[in-house]
Write the structure tokens for this entry.
Amino acid sequence: EAGVVQSPRYKIIEKKQPVAFWCNPISGHNTLYWYLQNLGQGPELLIRYENEEAVDDSQLPKDRFSAERLKGVDSTLKIQPAELGDSAVYLCASSRLAGEEAFFGQGTRLTVV
Amino acid sequence: AQSVTQLGSHVSVSEGALVLLRCNYSSSVPPYLFWYVQYPNQGLQLLLKYTTGATLVKGINGFEAEFKKSETSFHLTKPSAHMSDAAEYFCAVRGIGGNNRLAFGKGNQVVVIP
């Protein structure tokens, strides 16, 4: 069974530019998460989807960040415009149901210069 | 809201010695508890989890953890460290019911000394 797939693995952009990350969860997993992980820190939840509905987005900086999960499968996280402080690893995870263990992708390492 | 405390960002252990990583949680209801491991440039991998039932939980790679409600703890142990155990370890807590947010601690970077 394929795991959670994220792309790209690495991204370097200049500040003020837009960037997008893509996530394909494990087949059949209804719950999808986007986490932000700063260096030396634990992951912090940005947004959680149940199917196509964003049920927990209180931590998402909505002035510059947006996310979508069309058709309740793949998801895209966008930053526009990017700032230097957005440099981090963005992790996507999925679980079959909200209360079950989450499986993580390898993450996208973003560097904003 | 649930939260997790992991003390000591870096933990050094000699090869063959006991690995002990401490995790304390706060939750208004009995939580689900998890330990994840992260190798360099990799995503997080589940080591073990506690949901209900037996409080001593065994996971992969010889790790185990014990849920102690009275101490609000879920410490991770391994009797004998191996070089391959060098990684970052995260404790996480999830509430039950309406709030299913999975909250992580800051992690412990484990260094194994030959």
